[in-house]
């Protein structure tokens, strides 16, 4: 059974991750996956992990297809495949309008067509072919270095169209911010896409980022959970995702308050039941049991995101290490 961790850990500088990564691998973590929002990029933390691990898988969850050109994405993937042969996974996604347009000055348009074309082009380039794409504006790009093997490509997806696309054209799907009970519905759609493409649906890998709350008193824990929940659910793509999953009525009061400018009131309107569904928290055994529930329902690669907190980076890092050790499977 695979057991993944999101890196880098909060509160700990990347320069201090070498020893931590070696410890985590020794304790049974099989995967290290990066993220890319407003902290560090998706590739450099994995380069560090490649230098300090020997057998763990390393994946981007996700690299954004709008803020890098397809040739640069292919070169970054090739570099990590060389650094960690047979261990790298290129996870791609379209991200959100705020990240793409407001933070990076690029227009988010034609996401389905662009992602499909990006996967096709990068896969052909990583296999040593010369690529052209009118949609992506690429003419005659080819890698000058040849890889022994091309890394697998996964697609991040929330709702039906993107889930089907992931099943159709990718080696795996990356899902995020859902409960164990939601997993069968989401995975079924992705596997349907694989079946339509003539692939074995059961061969599709399912990576899932799972949010673990820190070991704190209940009131503090729920306050942290509500802040994280608000950050996700107020993004239109996630609000639509949870409406599709059947939580539209539960999140409507919170969204209305948020849109009216009442941020404090919006946090109070997030129901406790939502936190209990979407987060992992409690004793180490309770946390492990819930992560394993995700796996029983169709996740093949659980990726823990440790929401460590503290008054200082040192306190935050200490909590992250404590959580890492308590949730190891060795």
Entry summary:
This protein has 330 residues and is an alpha/beta fold.
Structure write-up:
- By secondary structure, this protein is of the alpha/beta class.
- The chain has two domains: 4-215 and 281-326, Luciferase-like domain (TIM Barrel, Alpha-Beta Barrel), CATH 3.20.20; 219-280, no CATH class.
- It has helices spanning 17-26, 44-52, 70-83, 97-103, 111-126, 160-169, 183-196, 218-233, 236-244, 248-259, 263-268, 272-278, 284-296, 313-326; strands at 4-6, 31-34, 57-60, 63-64, 88-93, 131-133, 138-141, 153-156, 172-176, 205-212, 301-306.
- The strands form two sheets. An eight-stranded parallel β-barrel has the order 1-2-3-5-8-9-10-11, surrounded by seven helices. It has a two-stranded antiparallel ribbon with strand order 6-7.
- The radius of gyration is 19 Å and the shape is globular.
- The relative contact order is 0.14.
- The mean pLDDT is 97.
Strand content: 5-15%
For this structure, the CATH topology of the largest domain is TIM Barrel
Which sequence of SSEs, written as H and E, runs from N to C? EHEHEEHEHHEEEHEHEHHHHHHEH
Number of distinct helices: 14
Inertia-based shape: globular
Query: CATH-wise, what's the superfamily of the largest domain?
Result: Luciferase-like domain
CATH architecture type of the largest domain: Alpha-Beta Barrel
Major sheet attributes: 8 strands, parallel, barrel
């Amino acid at each position: 059974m695979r057991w993944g961790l999101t890196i880098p850990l909060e509160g700990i500088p990347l320069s201090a991750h070498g020893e931590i990564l070696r410890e985590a691998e020794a304790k049974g973590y099989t995967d290290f996956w990066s993220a890319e929002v407003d902290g560090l990029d998706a590739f450099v933390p994995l380069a560090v992990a490649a230098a300090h691990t020997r057998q763990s898988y390393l994946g981007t969850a996700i690299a954004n297809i709008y803020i890098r050109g397809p040739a640069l994405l292919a070169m970054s993937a090739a570099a990590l495949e060389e650094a960690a042969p047979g261990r790298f996974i290129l996870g791609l996604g379209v991200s959100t309008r705020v990240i793409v347009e407001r933070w990076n000055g690029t227009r988010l348009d034609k996401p389905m067509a662009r992602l499909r074309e990006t996967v096709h082009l990068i896969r052909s380039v990583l296999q040593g072919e010369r690529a052209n794409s009118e949609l992506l504006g690429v003419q005659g790009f080819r890698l000058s270095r040849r890889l022994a093997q091309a890394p697998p490509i996964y697609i991040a997806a929330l709702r039906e169209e993107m889930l089907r696309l992931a099943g159709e054209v990718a080696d795996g799907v990356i899902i995020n911010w859902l409960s164990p009970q939601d997993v069968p519905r989401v995975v079924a759609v992705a596997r349907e896409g694989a079946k339509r493409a003539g692939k074995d649906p059961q061969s599709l890998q399912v990576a899932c980022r799972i949010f673990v709350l820190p070991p704190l008193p209940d009131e503090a824990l729920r306050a942290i959970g509500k802040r994280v929940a608000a950050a996700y659910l107020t993004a239109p793509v996630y609000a639509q995702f949870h409406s599709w999953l059947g939580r539209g009525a539960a999140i409507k009061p919170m969204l209305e308050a948020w849109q009216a400018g009442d941020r404090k009131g919006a946090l109070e309107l997030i129901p406790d039941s939502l936190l209990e569904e979407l987060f992992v928290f409690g004793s180490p055994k309770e946390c492990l049991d819930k992560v394993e529930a995700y796996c029983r329902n169709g996740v093949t690669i659980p990726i823990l995101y440790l929401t460590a907190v503290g008054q200082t980076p040192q306190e935050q890092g200490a909590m992250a290490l404590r959580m890492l050790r308590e949730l190891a499977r060795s």
